[in-house]
Structure formats: C-alpha cells, structure tokens
What does this fold into?
Amino acid sequence: MAFIEKFEDREFIESESEITSFHVWKYLDGNDVFKLKELKAKDIFKNNVAKEIWLNETRQLNKLKSVTNAKEYLEVIHDSFIDDEGNYCLIYQSSDTTTSLEYFLSTIEESKTRISLFSKSKGHWLSKNQVSSITSRMILWKNILRLVEAIAILHDQDIIHRNISIKSVIYDDSEDVDDTERFSLGGFEKSLDFNKINAPIFIDEGEVIYTVHQDWSDLAKLITYILGIDDITDSTNISAKEVRVLNYLMNGKSINHTKLVDKVFLKEIIHGVIDHLSR
It folds into this structure.
C-alpha cells in the first residue's frame, strides 16, 4: 500500500515541479496537516533518477533542521522514507491555509473575474490591478525580505536552491498571519550543495547554471513577474530605489561559487525601499 492511501482525509495537489511523476498531497494525521511529496518510482525516468532526486532533497533539507529560524522562512523536512510500494516520500509540516504562490495568484485572478462591475472591492494586494500601488508594493517588499532571509540561510549552509519561482514560494493565507509575513520558500527538488561542485557546469551556450548568483537573479525575476514588469529600465510603476534593488540582484557576479551578493547591503537597500514607500 502506498503511504498516502493510509489517510482518508487527503487532497491531491498539482505538482510543484516540472517532473510529471512528482505528486504532491496534503493529508490530515490526527489534528496535524502534512504535505507529502511522492516520487513515483515505477514511471519516473531511467537510472534511478527518482531516488537521486529524493536523496538530494533529503540531504539538503536535513542540514536545515538545526538552523535557527529556518522554519520561519523555509519549508523544513519532517520525515523522509520509501513506502511499501517503493515510492520515494518527503514529508513536511503544513497547514490548510498554505499553497504555492502560483496557485494563489491564479485564484486571485479567477475571483476577480466574478466581482461585479459595481463592486467596491479593489481586490487582493497581489492582484494585477492592485500590486503596483504603493501600499501593495510595501507589503510585497516586506515579504521579499523573508525570501532574502531564506536564501541567505541556504547559502550559509552551502546550498543553492536553483528553483526560485512562483511555484516554489509558499503563500500562507491564514487570517492569523500578517500580510507582511505570508511568503516562505520551498521547492527544493533542484537544490545543490555547491561544495561538491569542482568546477562550473555549463550548458551549450556557455552559460554557467550552477552558481549562488542564480538564486539572486531568479529572485529578481520573481519580483518583476509579480509586479508585471517586462523591462525595469522602462517601468513607470516602480521607484528608482526599487530599480536599484532589482539591478543589484540581477547584475551581481559569482566567480568560483563565492557569494558576491552582500546580503547585509541587500537587506539595507530593501529596507530603504520600504521606508520610501511608507512615507
């Protein structure tokens, strides 16, 4: 029997990964909600790819268990095992109010289409018609600070995330959580210990794909996507201070895997953005 079949109260969630055989569930065990990532060993790629992905994520996340504040900003592993059917399982503590940012953004836009033309509701702060407002951007940047903390923790543990996007950011919609504290980071399927890389690895075009700077660059892409910005040099929706942060994230360099993004300075200029928007 597959592990998930032991629980009557379970819900299948669309995969958070491009790997089609990577199934994600939520289930209720007593009074606790857990998330299960299940790699189906029978129909995954050849040569034990499922096992390698499972082992890699298990190794990386076990390093985070003893890190102070890791649970505040990151989805930390609860358990890892192979079930009776040979499926590779990763268990995370969860709740019924958390989902991927990708899914949450889609629900916002769906609900917006159902709002009456004469409704006084202006929509969620992350909705396309609200996210560029000063208040919404202030809230967004405070949540981005949480992702900066998450990435900093990973890099301090010599882990490159390599998968930062709206699919890997977790959104907590609980009424008990302040809007400024809704983001955390999950989606560690592609994470990598950069101490085990002897040399940069290149794709055909010669672009380095395994560096710590990829995470910071991907964070910049995430921010511009949320804000609906195609070109930061030609955007009238954000301030010069916000452009400065995005340029710093995108234009930093990583040589021989050294961490050249100054995280203290990054937090400082993001706080500068928040202070500017708060006036």
